[in-house]
Amino acid sequence: MRKPRHNQARPALGVTRGTGAAALLAAAGLLITAVPAQAATPPPAPPVEVVPGEDTATPALVEGLREPVDAKAAPADAARGHLAAKEGRYRIAEPGRDLAPVRTLKRGADEAVRLQQKHRGVPVLGGQYVVRMETSGGKRVVTGTSGKYFTGLTTGTEAAVTEDVAVRRAVSATAARLGNSRLTEADAIRKEGEKSQKAQALTGTAGGLVVIPRGDGVLARHVTVRGTNPVTGEPVLEEVYVDARSGFPVLQYSGIKSVTGPMAAAARPARAGTAPAAADEPAAPAAKGSGLRLDGARVDLELSLDAATGRYGMIDHARMADTSKNTLSTWDASSQDVGDVSGQWPSGIKVFESATAEFGKAATEAGAVDAHWAAGQVYDYYRKQHGRNGLDGRGSTVNSLVGVTLFGGSYVNAFWDGQKMVYGSGDEEFKPLSADLDVVGHEMTHGVVENTANLVYAGQSGALNEAVADYFGNAIDVTASGRSMDDPDAGLIGEDLCRTKSARDCALRDLDDGATTSKNFLGVTFGTDNGGVHLNSTIFSGALWDMRQDLGGELADRIVYKALSEYMTPLDGFTEGRNAVLAAAKDLGVTAKQRNVVKRSFSAHGIVPGWEDALGVDTDRLLGKLNISGTGAQAGGGWWTASQSNDDGSEPYSVYAGRADGSGHPKLISPNDGRFHVYPATDGRNVVWVAYGTTSLDILSRPLAGGPIKKLYTSTGDISGLRVENGVVVFESFGFFGDRHVAYLRPGDTRPTYADGGSFFLATALPSISQGRIAYAKLYPGETGYLLGVEVLDLKTGTKTLTGQLGEPQSLGQTGINGKHVFWLTDENLNDTGQMGVRRADLDGGSVFDIAPEAKPRALHGVDLTVSEDAVTVSSQTPDTQWRNETLSKLWQLTTDGSRLERVSCNRGEQISPAAVSGRQVVWLDGTTGFTDLVTRTRPAGRCG
């Protein structure tokens, strides 16, 4: 008997549909069934069913075909021949030119051919089409097609932005996303010509031109940024797409697919290395061995015996002996920090070895026995159940790196980086991350996904990627353990990792958490959990889990694998994923009753056409569906200003402004000149902003009352943090060496004045301005090292006042200033709890105290701050090993003396970029509806229940 559903308060985080690449993730259209023609004998063919594509003339899904193609041609040629012959159906004019073969999956008589769309020779991001064929009796027929081919692309393919500029801007955008909301000692430059630690931490590699399929198409340069997070030291593998005409980063997301979501703590700068290639010489003899898993169970291990040393190694030749020289190998990475291994092969590591075939306590406690045994189990599952030879389907080596640390300390996470599995060492509570079969299955399935549907790891497609990884990881674990699907703990992921906690308290996720789109979907930007890849995942994986419980594991697993390998394509969201699973079930010949079970499972989780339109907020919307990323919003003088793109995000961003009370209509401020106009600020009289060009950036200004646009300053470096008051424009500039400086322009100035004098050895950042005074965070040399403080510059007198300090801050966050005080975020325990204090001082630098202490219970984890004469509003995002609604960025408001603290809004999802208007009114960017909306409240919402 099916157990009752429970709906835990554990939301699954979703894609901000109008932000970054989320505009690409359109829901599939309604199912249309053609009426079959009347026929005598033989019986009529099954009806052809078509799901039309969104914003394209090419169908998203075609089923029920039995159309002959050339049986002797190569699979890709036969597939493209079919598409060419049926141009009226597919609207693909020249498949031979515009569709390049990716891979062909063969299983028995069936073939599934994946084809990559190209626009005028340039690959289209996520543009893949799949043709399924069947061969019998020497004849080959097409049985169905699916995918995304974008027919509306007309963009040119000549780039105006060079590779060098694209790489520089991609690295700068990554650094800004990861660390420029704080000023730390890593910003220091100690000698002329030396880059800051932050600048050294990241490097970019150009990857060629790509067309992003928004509207007519956006030509972009793809850059991969690697290194370490400049603030936390976390490993960085960032995919950045820079508009090839203006140089603005229009899309960026992390390529590291981790099991828990947020990466933990710090890591050293990465060292390059090369993964070991398959050996040309004869393999070491295979051997049998054993070892104890961390749960105490003794398991058999496939090993190799080195004849020269007589030692046994965790190298499994046996499983792949019939197809390749490749292996399943388990490596001792206990000497490595996580930054040394992400996206590259670390030097100097060796496979786990033993003098005997019985591996002992050290291998057990390191998690090596678990990792090696589990990798074999996962390999066997895919080979036996789905006929798949390894992660790539071609039997390539499977490498597991075990015991990765953080500066030699604990690391609680695991991830797939596109080459290998990496398992953290664990800590006092968590075992090594290889100690649960479902975690190993999860990470290895990311490799399978990458070599099949290759679901883009951002937004809904990223959540779908995580959901499939969770589903198969759980399925493998449940099957191996013999646990019933009716067991209350059967849906848990990572439940065996803890040393003392119960399974449910330890688990990373629960596939049976009852999450639905209507109750649990959370809208966030791509800067948070890649747009919700972990938080949203249980909505979809929960539907798959329900299906498995009702249909049984063997059939459900076959359906999901077929959907993944033969139907899904890189930009599929939840609705397309649902259609793929339904089509795969039908292709496998399930009964009508079983197909209804599949439909019911998705409906129970709210995955139905149009589900995204049912979300709402408790705030007043000033400007909807901005479709922007990382540009922020500002307010002043009773007005707001923000950037906005068009409905599908395909146009460059334009600056708008409007009244904060919602009256009147928003005004278009910037010109429509093909550039991206971003980072706007206003004082109620003028709007200033940055315009991105092919080689430089311009600071522009225009009166709200109308009039000509003025160019105030041109910079070859990057600019952010604009503020304006009475014609004085304040901003933060970024130099080539990673140096940061606050600068300002008075009316009539043609060159900026630097608040720190432009000194190479000082850093100033995070400015604010009020009543003729500028406040900013400052990093400066002391007697024994660098010191952090906040300085106030009086523009009238030129006087600079450095505030006193209560302790020795490790980092400083955004400043804010009003007519009486200066405020800022401060952290004296960097890399500890992540909590930050909200500190206040008089304008003369005295009377320093914390209006919200860092060490106070339930202290804020501030990432942004804005100030009026009456209130201080803080954007607080709580770091955690698991994403959930409570950890997302929420807005909190304090009185200026700290006597009262209240939530600004009770909206779920992400709330960022607060800007004080006056009194207690704040405007901000809100992701609750799944779009990025500019919203406001005139006073806090209270306690939010």
Overview of the molecule:
It is a single chain. The chain has 945 residues and is of the alpha+beta class. The protein folds into five domains: 49-148, TATA-Binding Protein; 163-254; 255-263 and 283-449, Elastase, domain 1 (Roll); 452-614, Neutral Protease, domain 2; 620-665 and 676-684 and 756-937, Neuraminidase. It contains 17 helices and 56 strands. The strands form 13 sheets. Strands 2, 3, 4, 5, 6, 7, 8 and 9 form an eight-stranded antiparallel beta sheet that branches. Strands 15, 19, 20, 21, 23, 24 and 25 form a seven-stranded mixed beta sheet that branches. A hairpin with a 5-residue loop joins strand 54 (911-916) and strand 55. The chain is globular. Residues 1-43 and 263-272 have low confidence and may be disordered.
Could you give a quick summary of the protein structure above?
This protein is α+β, with helices and mostly antiparallel strands and 945 residues long. The chain is 19% helix and 33% strand. It folds into five domains: 49-148, TATA-Binding Protein (2-Layer Sandwich), CATH 3.30.310; 163-254; 255-263 and 283-449, Elastase, domain 1 (Roll); 452-614, Neutral Protease Domain 2 (Neutral Protease, domain 2), CATH 1.10.390; 620-665 and 676-684 and 756-937, Neuraminidase (6 Propeller), CATH 2.120.10.
* Total number of strands: 56
For this structure, the CATH topology of the largest domain is Neuraminidase
Number of helices: 17
> How would you state the average pLDDT, rounded?
88
Signal peptide: 1-39
Keywords: Hydrolase, Metal-binding, Metalloprotease, Protease, Signal, Zinc
Domain Peptidase M4 C-terminal: 453-607
Family: Belongs to the peptidase M4 family.
